[in-house]
Specification:
Layout lengths: L1 E5 L6 H15 L3 E6 L13 E5 L13 H15 L4 E5 L4 H14 L7 E6 L2 H6 L6 H10 L2 E4 L2 H11 L6 E3 L21 E5 L8 H11 L6 E5 L5 H10 L6 E5 L4 H6 L3 E4 L8 H8 L3 E5 L4 H4 L6 E4 L4 H13 L1 H18 L2 H17 L1
Parallel strand pairs: 1-2, 1-4, 2-3, 4-5, 5-6, 6-7, 8-9, 8-11, 9-10, 11-12, 12-13
Helix pairs in contact: 1-14, 2-3, 7-8, 7-12, 10-13, 12-13
The site of ligand GMT has 18 residues, from helix 1.
Length: 371
């Protein structure tokens, strides 16, 4: 198949899923073009199997921004004209579904030899925040209604999408995210010692990293458990200040954005995630795949990824005391985290392996093309 994928180039999960899909589909012999304003981190070492189109708009003083989304439409149209595309897949509704839809309509009007099928995958805040914004809701409803297939990354997100879309809703398929279980694998041997916990996110308010740091400080008083914080985002400065105010010293370290996540995760025992909302929680799945126990909030699609009592523990998002109690138990006995990690790893390999996850998308494309 000739496949065009549109995604954000940031460290966020939607770009990760889109990039991993692109790489895997290309490895399986499909012709894959990826359109994005930058190089998504997981494509940094792309050997050329995926054709990357870095789309740039025009920096013209009249424009409030450079309109990369319109440049993406243009780049897709160029590929349709030169070699054709069977499928256009937008990961995250805005702006990619709009760019892709526009390109497809233009191809139709141009009488292109191939008019691609349009697939839109909703990832999370494109439904819970963006779609709720009155400025975007009408356009999103229209574009989703025009797509050949709409998918969501968890059952929880599918339900939220249906609730928002209302009576005009078309079919929504739940196609869960996945992880490369070969790359994200546990270390052969774990070093003994105090609990090493880690958190990875984009430090946006909905991740509640300050809440997490407070909880860690309460749970680890006087001990030598550590917390590694990976990522960057708007709340990072506040988190640094808070860690200093709480006197956490070298027990908390901030590493910024990192590309060596598999090795980094595998050097820890527990993954902590205290989001207010999480449609899936790809970072938790990657940690499970590395054999870490996951301690997280019971929100959105997280219970579909981390089974409470199996791959880790889930607590109510407003119950910091419960989170602290559980973390105290893991700090007292890191073997608890390891035991959850073993079960989490087994679940990741059985239910969320990359090959199976990407095959679900390939099957969807085939079905659409057979229609
Ligand atoms: O929706 C977002 O905040 C952005 C998006 C991203 O690009 O990171 O995150 C969402 O998509 C991920 C991949 O499908 C999911 O694992 C995350 O749970 C989801 N984030 C939220 O729902 C907050």
């Amino acid at each position: 198949m000739r496949i065009g994928i549109l995604c954000h180039p940031t460290f966020g999960g939607s770009g990760v899923v889109a990039s991993e899909c692109a790489l895997s589909l290309a490895e399986h012999g499909h012709r894959v073009h990826l359109f994005s304003p930058g190089v998504p981190p997981r494509l940094a070492h792309n050997s050329g199997a995926v054709v990357l189109h870095r789309v740039h708009g025009l920096d013209y003083p009249l424009f409030a921004n450079s309109h990369a989304e319109l440049a993406a439409t243009g780049a897709v149209l160029d590929v349709i004209a030169s070699e054709g595309l069977d499928v256009l897949h937008a990961h995250y509704a805005l702006p990619h579904a709009v760019s892709a839809h526009l390109a497809r309509e233009a191809a139709r009007v141009n009488d292109a030899a191939s008019v691609p099928r349009l697939v839109v995958t909703l990832h999370g805040t494109d439904v819970t925040l963006v779609a709720a914004a009155p400025a975007y809701a009408p356009l999103l409803r229209y574009v989703l209604g025009c797509a050949d297939a709409v998918t969501a990354v968890s059952r929880d997100l599918s339900i939220r999408l249906r609730d928002w879309w209302g009576t005009a809703a078309g079919p929504i398929e739940t196609l869960p995210n996945f992880v490369d279980t070969h790359a994200f694998a546990p270390r052969a041997e774990r070093e003994p010692g105090p609990l090493r916990s880690i958190h990875v996110s984009n430090f946006r308010p909905l991740k509640r990293v300050p809440w997490l740091i407070e909880a860690f400080a309460r749970a680890s008083q006087g001990g030598d458990a550590s917390l590694t914080l990976v990522g960057d985002g708007p709340e990072l400065p506040r988190c640094r200040d808070l860690a200093a105010e709480l006197g956490l010293g070298t027990r908390v370290r901030f590493l910024g954005e990192r590309r060596d996540l598999p090795a980094l995760l595998a050097a820890h025992d527990a993954f902590l995630l205290t989001s207010r909302e999480e449609s899936f929680g790809l970072s938790a799945l990657e940690a499970s795949s590395c054999g870490l126990g996951v301690l997280a909030t019971r929100v959105g699609g997280l219970p579909e990824v981390v089974q409470d009592g199996a791959g880790g523990r889930l607590v109510a998002p407003d119950d910091q005391n419960a989170f602290v109690r559980e973390l105290v138990a893991w700090i007292a006995d890191p073997a608890r985290a390891h035991a959850f990690g073993v079960r989490g790893r087994a679940r990741a390999t059985a239910d969320f392996d990359r090959d199976t996850g990407v095959q679900r998308y390939a099957d969807l494309y085939t079905r659409l093309l057979d229609r």
